[in-house]
Amino acid sequence: MNSLQALGQHGLIGLEIVGTAAFALSGVIQAMQKKMDMVGVCVCGFLAAFGGGTLRDVLIDRRPFFWVEQQSMLIGVLVLCVVCASLLRQHHLDQSRKLLLVPDAIGLGLFSATGVHLAWSLGLPPIVAVLMGVVTATFGGVLRDLAGNEIPRLFRDHRPYAVCALAGGVVYAGLSALHLPDPLPITACAVITVVLRILSVWRNWTLPALRLH
Questions:
Q1: Contact at 8 Å (CB) between 103 and 26?
Q2: Is 213 inside a domain boundary?
Q3: pLDDT at 100
Q4: Position 165 in a domain
Q5: Model's pTM, two decimal places?
Q6: For residue 141, is it within any domain?
Q7: pLDDT at 106 over 90
Q8: Helices 126-147 and 38-59 meet at what angle, rounded to 10?
Q9: CA torsion, ordered 117, 120, 126, 127, to nearest 10 deg
Q10: Which tens digit of pLDDT belongs to each residue from 22-59?
Q11: Whose CA is closest to 65, among 77, 52, 75?
Q12: Which residue has the higher pLDDT, 172 or 34?
């Protein structure tokens, strides 16, 4: 049992690493689009990668923060920011605007899965665990957009975003309530969130906008 738990823990860390890299890349691309210098690129990458998880840790009173506990992840993000910013060229940015949706969707799914799993493992109520997954998945992007002097995509993009993370979290809660092994709810949450987000962009699904008359 201990070896299985260790394997599951390593798998969770692996998901966090991939999700962190995906969101950091989205921050780098946005910073390059805004023609920021290297400091701005690193700040946007950091906020995108760690903002949602940090807010989650604050809300559930978890210490140390996950990027403090995994300092190698912090170093890796900073290196990724510098390398990507050095390799990207201005004439690649038009294409990168479209590519931004891919790492953003991947980060959304993986962070939703790890966020809800962590909260669920702490014994928090299901609705709270699901919301912690949404917070983890979305608020890094909110901080990234604010640093880029934009209205966060979470609030202005009428395509489902937080709703996709919410749907994935609900699936996780349902499967975990059936006492299925951890890998299945985590994988299902991540896959469903990513697929819904990509489909919402591809099929141009939109949520109704509130209008004042």
A1: yes
A2: no
A3: 67
A4: yes
A5: 0.80
A6: yes
A7: no
A8: 160
A9: -60
A10: 888 888 888 888 888 889 889 999 998 888 888 988 98
A11: 52
A12: 172
